[in-house]
Amino acid sequence: MPAMKTDMLGSHLSVAGGYVNALREAERLGMQTVQIFTKNQRQWKASPMDPAAMNDWLTELHRLKWTQTVSHASYLINLATPADEHFAKSIDSMTDEVERAEALEVRYVVVHPGSSLDSSEEAGIDRLVKALDEITKRTRGFNAIICLETTVGGGNQIGGRFEHLGAIRQRLAQPERVGTCFDTCHVTAAGYDMSTAKAVKAVFEQYDAIVGLDHLLCFHLNDSKFGVGSHRDRHEHIGLGEVGLPCFEHIMRSRKFARTPKILETEKAETDDGTPWDTINLRQLRALAEKRKTAAGPRSKAATPKAGQPTGRKKAGSQTRKPSQPRRSRKTT
Ligand SMILES: [Zn+2]
Ligand SMILES: [Zn+2]
């Protein structure tokens, strides 16, 4: 096989049986990075990391020379909450997330900005700034960078508008410690149409003007079951949802993002013939990346996926069916 171009594609993979298993699986699937949970994402209490498990991870990480790995913080954390007790608990828990990432030499810690609940958007943003300043103060000098994720923006959720992320970053004491994670499903559901080349270009120009593309340090590449402005968070396989292939094309072909981690958070089920859906989604994304290279010459079949139909789908044996029993236990949002 020819040497693979750097595209920094990865997936959120299970750490069952040890952190190292996520790295091994990512390598087996032909990825260049991975996203993990460093502790149970639905519990506050977490025991310290097992030294042997850490060591196994680090040994493998160094062999692979992966410097762009990602962790996803607990869903219980709400750094925008007006409730003092939950706020303090969230800061402690997020500090622990950053410390774990640092120990595992994980570069990016993605966190949902949270919800201002019954307080105003401004109050939520104030809380986030305060929380992030406290966390980066407690972890001063660390390499790990916190990435605020774009959200679908329902209710009083912070992160559904680029302005939220821009406003937060502008006020931070240590802005170099905080970047953003762009989730294609969430941005679509939040109300940004990226379904044509022109539209996606405009959305990224907006992001650049409001947040800054230099601070976009991680992608979650998910298609969306629901449409633009639906405010509903349901991930779909690449090309089978409402995001539109032009969005993924734009990201995959942008030189600016060549080394930016691009994490699949789509369902990990297999097709009827046993092909992992991650493999199919990777093929689809890589075909989109190759499209320009072959545009002048004869196009190979793999380089021209039909809109809305991932490459390799036919090969995968199922004509129109989705995997019958997709596993939801490792669902990431
Ligand atoms: Zn999601
Ligand atoms: Zn995400």
Concise synopsis of the structure shown:
With 333 residues, the protein is of the alpha/beta class. 35% of the residues lie in helices and 11% in strands. The chain has helices at residues 20-28, 51-64, 84-103, 121-138, 162-170, 184-190, 197-210, 245-253, 277-294; strands at residues 9-11, 35-36, 70-72, 108-111, 145-149, 178-183, 216-220, 223-224, 235-236, 262-264.
User: Which regions contain 5 or more consecutive residues with pLDDT less than 50?
Assistant: 294-329
Whole-number tally of structural domains: 1
CATH fold-type name: TIM Barrel
| Portion in beta strands | 5-15%
Strand line-up across the major sheet: 1-10-7-6-5-4-3-2
CATH classification, class level? Alpha Beta
The secondary structure category is alpha/beta
Assembly context of the chains: single chain
Q: State mean pLDDT (0 to 100 scale).
A: 90
Number of strands: 10
Biggest sheet features: 8 strands, parallel
Secondary-structure blueprint:
Layout lengths: L8 E3 L8 H9 L6 E2 L14 H14 L5 E3 L11 H20 L4 E4 L9 H18 L6 E5 L12 H9 L7 E6 H7 L6 H14 L5 E5 L2 E2 L10 E2 L8 H9 L8 E3 L12 H18 L39
Parallel strand pairs: 1-10, 2-3, 3-4, 4-5, 5-6, 6-7, 7-10
Antiparallel strand pairs: 8-9
Helix pairs in contact: 1-2, 3-4, 4-5, 8-9
Bound molecules: zinc ion (2 copies).
